[in-house]
Amino acid sequence: MDGPVEVESSEDFAAIPDAFQRLWTPHRMVYIQGGEQPHIDECPFCRAPSLSDEQGLIVARGTHAYVLLNLFPYNSGHLLVCPYRHVATYDLATPEEVEEIGTLTQTAMRVLQAVSRCDGFNIGMNQGRVAGAGVAGHLHQHIVPRWMSDSNFFPIIARTKALPQLLGEVRAEIQAAWPVAGAPGQ
User: Fold this and answer.
1) Full residue range of the structural domain in which residue 44 is found
2) Bridge-partner residues for 69, per DSSP?
3) Is 144 a member of any domain?
4) Which among 55, 56, 82, 63 has a CA at the least distance from the CA of 143?
5) pLDDT for 123-174, tens place per residue?
6) Domain presence at residue 1
7) Whose CA is closest to 20, among 155, 151, 163?
8) Three-state helix/strand/coil letters over 30-53
């Protein structure tokens, strides 16, 4: 290339500035280009158990519920516990589903503490779209590991979340550390 390089000013681009900075994550294109995105009317939590553990980001399967990584995590290791049955709210879950969701949540906490040495957790359910549920039709509980050092300027000032590991790597670590069913501490 001969001559000076011309740099195009972003002021000429067709866009309306907003308060968000972009942290580009091209590794997520595999979900779009690979046909991994479910149809808008298809429940991702009903679909996930029909996939391989790697494809569904599943780390553990129980009798009535299962555990998977959140596709759009707040922190590395952000897990979801879902009943297999398509039920919208906690009050509609069977006693067996409630018990297994609780047991899987406890196990997930132990595994995350061992694997990631987290300092605490945010655990909760958003019931209904008005309460913030992204997938309001299928009950799911969030388990978000937290560290004393995870508060930094990125999410506060830059409105950007940096995640240090790819989802597949996190899933493999958590699944490898998950205890065998019936083992002590399960």
Assistant:
1) 33-177
2) 79
3) yes
4) 82
5) 999 988 888 888 889 999 999 999 887 665 555 445 556 666 778 888 899 9
6) no
7) 155
8) HHHHCCCCCCCCCCHHHHHHHCCH
